[in-house]
Amino acid sequence: MIVDSSKWKHVFKLDPDKEISDESLDRICLSGTDAIIVGGSSGVTFDNTVDLLSRIRGYEVPCVLEVSDSEAIVPGFDLFFIPMVLNAEDPDWILGRHHEAIKEYGAMMDWNEILVEGYVILHADSTAAKITRARTGLSERDVQAYARMAEHLLHLPIFYIEYSGTFGDMDLIRSTKRVLETTRLFYGGGIDGPEKARMAAEAADTIVVGNLIYEDLERALETVQALI
Ligand SMILES: CC(C)=CCC/C(C)=C/CC/C(C)=C/CC/C(C)=C/CC/C(C)=C/CC/C(C)=C/CC/C(C)=C/COP(=O)(O)OP(=O)(O)O
Ligand SMILES: O=P(O)(O)OC[C@@H](O)CO
Ligand SMILES: [Mg+2]
């Protein structure tokens, strides 16, 4: 069965490069979140991804692999999200790596399971920004233009504003959402509890909670309840 991500309001992002106990994972998977995304910008390997998938697979929650390294593509997820970093200065992260991966896996890919995310990375100090050499000093009009490109030029299902590690500008998220019609707006970055979860959920379609899982599990779980 193909999972439908178009109604998700809250997702947790688990990093295969970080440790999580069975008890914490159990609470995350049973929290009522709409889905778990498995992904990270560094240290993601085939082995640590298989390990995390096999532990999440015991639960019913939909589970997505957000591919950041073609050596760590593991079959068996419900969906695969493929980031395309629209504001990357290094074109490798827009289409280069994707071309290499499709050369290798193209013949065996089930395209119905694959969703491309148009990413705009805005936190200059994040690993993702450094790796991709993201142009982070963008104006509101720049970001809106990327959103329109994602929707109308590229027909992408997801536009992802990534502030990984810091809480972003909610006015920018709101004004970007206004220019999107069908493409879903994902927001991630610095959600450190229910208050910010609510603020972000009012501005974006789907919010992503990552680091907080590893920093304060109780508050991470409260971000799910905050949206109910
Ligand atoms: C049968 C079978 C094997 C089927 C699989 C088929 C399949 C899914 C094929 C995929 C084909 C494909 C097109 C793959 C893409 C390959 C690839 C490497 C693309 C590049 C992705 C990319 C742009 C990565 C850059 C980094 C990035 C944007 C990562 C996204 C996640 C992110 C930002 C996480 C935040 O990370 P965190 O760890 O929290 O770090 P910081 O806060 O420090 O930034
Ligand atoms: O880790 P945080 O800052 O919550 O960010 C979530 C997600 O957008 C990371 O890709
Ligand atoms: Mg993280």
From TrEMBL:
Residues engaged in binding Mg(2+): 15, 41
Family matches, as InterPro entries: GGGP/HepGP_synthase_I (IPR039074), GGGP/HepGP_synthase_sf (IPR038597), GGGP_HepGP_synthase (IPR008205)
Keywords of this entry: Lipid biosynthesis, Lipid metabolism, Magnesium, Metal-binding, Phospholipid biosynthesis, Phospholipid metabolism, Transferase
Domain of life: Bacteria
GO molecular function per UniProt: heptaprenylglyceryl phosphate synthase activity; magnesium ion binding
Pathway in which this enzyme or protein is active: Membrane lipid metabolism; glycerophospholipid metabolism
Any GO BP: glycerophospholipid biosynthetic process
Cofactor(s) of this protein: Mg(2+)
Residues reported in the UniProt entry to bind sn-glycerol 1-phosphate: 13, 160-165, 190, 210-211
UniProt keyword Transferase present: yes
Catalytic reaction(s) noted: sn-glycerol 1-phosphate + all-trans-heptaprenyl diphosphate = 3-heptaprenyl-sn-glycero-1-phosphate + diphosphate
Short name of any one Pfam family annotated for the protein: PcrB
EC number(s) per entry: 2.5.1.n9
Function: Prenyltransferase that catalyzes in vivo the transfer of the heptaprenyl moiety of heptaprenyl pyrophosphate (HepPP; 35 carbon atoms) to the C3 hydroxyl of sn-glycerol-1-phosphate (G1P), producing heptaprenylglyceryl phosphate (HepGP). This reaction is an ether-bond-formation step in the biosynthesis of archaea-type G1P-based membrane lipids found in Bacillales.
Family membership noted in the UniProt record: Belongs to the GGGP/HepGP synthase family. Group I subfamily.
PANTHER family in alphabetical order: HEPTAPRENYLGLYCERYL PHOSPHATE SYNTHASE (PTHR40029:SF2), PTHR40029
Subunit structure as annotated in this protein's UniProt entry: Homodimer.
HAMAP family from the UniProt entry: GGGP_HepGP_synthase (MF_00112)
Designated name of the protein: Heptaprenylglyceryl phosphate synthase
Organism annotation: Paenibacillus lutrae
Protein encoded by which gene: pcrB
